[in-house]
Amino acid sequence: QQPVQSPQAVILREGEDAVINCSSSKALYSVHWYRQKHGEAPVFLMILLKGGEQKGHEKISASFNEKKQQSSLYLTASQLSYSGTYFCGTANNTDKLIFGTGTRLQVFP
Amino acid sequence: NAGVTQTPKFQVLKTGQSMTLQCAQDMNHNSMYWYRQDPGMGLRLIYYSASEGTTDKGEVPNGYNVSRLNKREFSLRLESAAPSQTSVYFCASSVGTGELFFGEGSRLTVL
Q1: H or E segment at A6?
Q2: What's the Cα-to-Cα distance from B96 to each of A20, A57, B36, B100, rounded to whole Å?
Q3: Banded model confidence at residue A78, pLDDT cuts 50, 70, 90
Q4: How close, in Å, is residue B82 to chain A by CA atoms?
Q5: Which residue of B25, B97, B102 is the best one to mutate when testing the A interface, meaning the one whose CB has the most A CBs within 10 A?
């Protein structure tokens, strides 16, 4: 079952902050975050593992609430290069990564 | 560094024709994936392979078959293409539950 992402779309001015949420109905082992630019393949941003281990990318951070089966991606002081569609991917212990439907982020000058 | 290579990049088929999408990775990854991406639907998992010789169904496996003949290659076959299979197909690979590395995608149109 696909994880649910919210919001579906976000419009920002440069320098503003945004939060993208991802929730699952199943117990999670890991949560991945990817960004995809139009016409390109998704690019890895971050992975969060059960037990609190976290890896980061650039100036973007994320949290993982295992009990609530939720993750949030925090983008602070947004830049034009942050524009794109953000996907969370969730996995239980079988390694299969299932992606959410995405959040489209647009950053304007 | 090639990473994940998909062929072909573009393909147009007629309904009922068959074809195979090829994927190869040179990173010695054990896990490989096939996803399809449609507007508004995100990336949906078609098939997954945890290691050479093993495959597992994903969210949308109907109408597809896969082969993991060796550690490097994971192919996706459409036996009888349908217009509903018009999509962008991405192959990816990873080490276990780690970062996924994606190919550039294959754009398939079924008329």
Answers
A1: strand A4-6
A2: 26, 20, 21, 9
A3: very high
A4: 23
A5: B97
